[in-house]
Design a protein that fits this description.
The protein has helices spanning about 10-35, 40-50, 55-65, 80-110, 130-160, 160-190, 190-220, 235-250, and strands at about 120, 125-130, 255-260, 260-270, 290-295, 305. With about 300 residues, it is of the alpha+beta class. Its main location: membrane.
Length: about 300
């Protein structure tokens, strides 16, 4: 289980490339937002969200490097679950950013702050700073739209919740950019509240995604049933596997849990048969590599098969 299955190695290599592209692309977005930020609440919210949005990419790269390492004396089961830990870290960051930005936006709205966007001089020409803000925000929309669309199918094939969370962060990034543009245009039209209202709407969406992912990450760390990438509901492939095992051992107690991207199955109160088919056959038409262990733990009789 510590060796990455050959079926997903090409996708894992692609995921690593995407995350390096993310650090480069979103780094350019952060730089553009910083220099164009001005006094806009929505721009400040978008800048901080884009900056902290780099966290999932970093945690994925760290987890991908640690996951294949062999077991050690201090970590006899290896580092497979580092992906689960990285997922929790990404989810907490997402929720924390949303909560802080929501508070900041609502506070500014309640205080009735009237942000202003003045002119700036560039190469001897005076232009409205709002046009520069809108250009930076447009760039902050294009980059995450492209990256998010590329990551989602890869995350699905890898059953990688960290990469999926990063794709969600990319979605939050481009939504932030659109809301920020609405806020800047609102200021230009004299609607002082549009800026803070846009910032609060952005933050609420981020907070929702973060809270949902924390639920899923907690279930995984507590050895709960494998969850879907998109929600905290039990994944369909885990449900199908459970039914197959229950049909084969109707008197047994079938339990499934998730370890990183893998499923571990246990059948209790039943002695294992003399011969078992390969683990991937139990997954049917689902990704066979996901089932990494099938064990039996009746009193006085235990067996464990690992690939």
């Amino acid at each position: 289980m510590n060796q990455l299955p050959k079926e997903i190695r090409p996708e894992m290599a692609r995921a690593r490339r995407l995350e390096w592209w993310t650090l480069a692309g979103m780094g350019s977005v952060v730089a553009a937002m910083y220099f164009a930020m001005g006094s806009s609440q929505a721009m400040k919210t978008a800048f901080i969200e884009d900056l902290l949005g780099l966290v999932p990419a970093v945690t994925f790269l760290v987890a991908a490097r640690l996951e294949p390492r062999p077991p050690t004396r201090k970590y006899p089961y290896g580092f497979v679950r580092v992906d689960s830990l990285a997922f929790m870290a990404s989810a907490v960051v997402l929720a924390a950013v949303g909560a802080w930005l929501l508070f900041d936006g609502v506070s500014a709205l309640a205080a009735g702050e009237h942000p202003t966007i003045g002119p700036v001089t560039i190469f001897g020409h005076t232009v409205w700073l709002g046009w520069i803000m809108l250009a930076a925000l447009a760039w902050s929309v294009v980059v995450p739209v492209v990256l998010g669309r590329l990551k989602r199918p890869v995350a699905s094939k890898l059953c990688d919740k960290v990469l999926h969370t990063d794709a969600l962060m990319q979605k939050a990034d481009w939504q932030t950019g659109l809301a920020g543009m609405a806020g800047v245009l609102g200021i230009g039209m004299g609607l002082w509240w549009a800026d803070s209202a846009a910032a609060a709407a952005i933050a609420l969406s981020i907070l929702y995604d973060g809270a949902r992912n924390i639920r899923t990450a907690a279930a995984e760390l507590l050895d709960g049933m494998p969850r879907q990438l998109e929600s905290a509901e039990i994944s369909p492939d885990a449900e199908r596997l459970k039914r197959r095992l229950e049909a084969r051992w109707p008197d047994g107690h079938v339990r499934l849990r998730e370890s990183g991207r893998y499923i571990l199955a246990n059948v209790g109160d039943t002695c294992p048969p003399g011969d078992l088919p390969p683990l991937e056959e139990w997954m049917g038409d689902d990704a066979g590599w996901r089932l990494a262990q099938l064990s039996f733990t009746p009193p006085g009789c235990a067996r464990s098969d690992e690939d």
